[in-house]
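My current task is to audit a protein record that another person submitted. Please read both lines and tell me whether the C-alpha cells look consistent with the sequence. Do not assume that whoever made the record got everything right. I have pasted the whole thing underneath without changing anything:

===
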Amino acid sequence: MATEEDILELLSTLKAAYPAWKPGSSTPAMLDLWNRKLADFEPAALRQAIDRHIDGSNFFPSLHELITLARYYRPGGVVQKDELRERMLMLEDMFYTAGEISQTAWGALVVAFYQSGRKHGAIHAREKFSQFAGVSLEVELELVEA
C-alpha cells in the first residue's frame, strides 16, 4: 500500500512532467486528501497510472483521473483487462494526440457498454464524445435492447 513518501514521490514525478503546475498549489489539505485516497493502491499501480496519464495528457491530472487509471493495474503492474474501457482510452488518446474523433467508433462503444449491462459506461462515453466533438451523440439505445 502507498505511503506518504510514495505519494510525495509521485507528486514529484508529476511536477517534473508538468512544469506549468505550480508547486505552491499542493496545500496541506490537498496532500492529506491524496494520501487518504491513494493509500489503498500499490505504489507500482500508481506509477503506471501516472505514466499512462503523462503519455496521454498535457495537463496535470485530477485525483479522480489517477484513481480511475490506478484501478486498472494490479499489484505487480499487470493490467486488468477491460476491453471496453481500453477502447474508450484509445479513442480519447486519438482525440488528444491527433485531434481525431470518430462518431461511428464512439457510437459503437456506447452500444457495447449498453449491451454489456454497463449503462453508466454508455452514458460516460456519450458525454465524452459530446465534450470532444461539441455535439450530441445520437444512439438509439432502445433498439439495442430488442
